[in-house]
Specification:
CATH superfamily: Divalent-metal-dependent TIM barrel enzymes
CATH topology: TIM Barrel
Strand content: 15-25%
CATH architecture: Alpha-Beta Barrel
Radius of gyration: 19 Å
Strand order of the largest sheet: 1-2-3-4-7-8-9-12
Number of domains: 1
Structural class: alpha/beta
Shape: globular
Order of helices and strands: EHEHHEHEEEHEHEHHEEEHEHHH
Helix content: 25-40%
Largest sheet: 8 strands, parallel, barrel
Number of strands: 12
Distance between the termini: 42 Å
Number of helices: 12
């Protein structure tokens, strides 16, 4: 199925789009189902089964906490596996992130330090869930305005190590990369060229908004030109992964979503010169992963939290987004 969806252009599915999706199914290559929205709502499963009878389906998640030093939470993983057994998607994508630490649920994607201990945690947790999944597992890069203490590699290096250790494909989120380049001050095209693009099975495109000096990955706008430029560079590497448009709130008319997908289909590859990642050379440094994750959760959930080694303004920006998400 993964090979059949190469080059497919599809949408992140929302229940309010069901009629439009079914009517316009010939204009869609696939739909992406957010497992967290449906896995504990069995009354929605018959509609998803009907949807799958018309269109290929892939799945996505945000709450598995693949990077957690504490391991996976059976109370979350069990229902997730049961849902995916029902849905039987072509693949399931999750983030290189953690959402739980020290028994506390962050409710948001927390970044990992780019080091060997994080790679080991991801590999250990991925092996645990892969043994239960009815489909391949993909790992996705996240958006974060800062690097955590203890990072000893660039993000492309870390992603390459994690994919190798977990033996997974890549779900490459181009707007996440674009936002991180803006917020952290690096070159997005150079970072993309260093990514293990040959392992990309799916690509996410989306748009966000500016908040002061920050670019927020909100999934509430059309993808900017820079994201389509990155998509062209992906195709310039000789791969053509499935492309999924993520648009979560403030949805435009359905025809506007189809126009974005048509633009994604029409983006031609441009030649790029990939930067090769060197041999794996772990370097010492940084706090242990578990305590660092617990301190991070405490910092971003506190009224005015601080985390040593991270800019206070960046932590405040992340915490503000988390509080808006939770309606606080």
């Amino acid at each position: 199925m993964a090979a059949e969806l190469s080059g497919s252009a599809g949408l992140a599915f929302h229940a309010c789009l069901e009629d439009d999706v079914l009517i316009s199914r010939r204009d869609l290559g696939h739909v992406a189902i957010m497992a967290d929205h449906f896995m504990n709502r069995r009354e929605t499963w018959p509609s998803l089964a009907r949807l799958k009878s018309f269109l290929p389906v892939v799945a996505h998640g945000v709450g598995l906490s693949l990077g957690s030093a504490d391991g996976l939470d059976p109370a979350y993983a069990g229902p997730l596996v049961e849902f995916l057994d029902f849905l039987r998607p072509a693949w399931f994508g999750e983030h290189l992130a953690f959402t739980r630490a020290g028994g506390r649920d962050l409710g948001h994607l927390g970044p990992l330090p780019f080091n060997a201990e994080s790679v080991r945690a991801v590999a250990r947790n991925a092996a645990s869930i892969k043994a239960e999944l009815p489909c391949p597992l993909l790992l996705e890069n996240i958006s974060t305005p800062f690097l955590l203490p203890g990072s000893v590699w660039s993000e492309p290096e870390f992603v390459a190590r994690a994919l190798d250790a977990a033996d997974c494909g890549l779900l490459l989120d181009l707007h996440n990369l674009h936002a991180d380049a803006h917020n952290q001050g690096f070159d997005a095209e150079a970072a993309l060229d260093a990514m293990p693009i040959e392992r990309a099975v799916e690509v996410h495109v989306a748009g966000g908004f500016r908040e002061g000096r920050w670019l927020v990955d909100s999934h509430t706008k059309p993808p900017p030109d820079a994201v389509f430029d990155l998509l062209a560079r992906v195709r310039g590497r000789g791969v053509d992964p499935a492309v999924t448009l993520e648009w979560d709130r403030n949805l435009p008319p359905f025809e506007a979503l189809l126009e974005v997908l048509e633009r994604a289909r029409g983006v031609a590859g441009v030649e790029s010169n990939p930067l090769r990642v060197g041999p794996f050379e772990p370097r010492p440094g940084g706090p242990a992963l578990g305590p660092l994750q617990e301190r991070f959760v405490e910092a971003v959930l506190a009224p005015a939290g601080r985390l040593e080694g991270v800019d206070d303004e960046a932590i405040a920006h992340y915490a503000g987004g988390l509080k808006r998400k939770k309606g606080l």
